[in-house]
Amino acid sequence: MKEVFIIGNGVAGSTLALNLSATDSFRVHLISDESDFFYSRTALMYLYMGHLTAQQTEPYERNHWEKSGVNRIRGRVFALDRNAKTLTYRDVEGNTHQKTYDILVLAMGSLPRFLDWPNSTLKGVSGLYHLKDLEAIEAYTEPTKCKEAVIIGGGLIGVELAEMVHSRGIHTTMVIREPYFWSSVLPDSDAQLVQKHIEAQGIHILTETEVSRFSSEDGQQLSGVQLNSGKELSAQFAGVCIGVTPNTGFLSESGLTLNEGVVVDEYLQTSDPSIYAIGDCAELKHPSTERRAVEAVWYVARQMAETLSKHLIEGRAAYEQKHWFNSAKFFDLEYQTYGQVSTSSKRKNSEQHFHWHPKNQSKGITLSYRAHDRQFLGVNTFGIRLKQSVFEQWLNASESVDTVVAQLDRAHFDPEFSKMYYNDFRYAFLSNNG
Question: How confident is the model at residue 434 (pLDDT cuts 50, 70, 90)?
Answer without folding.
Answer: low
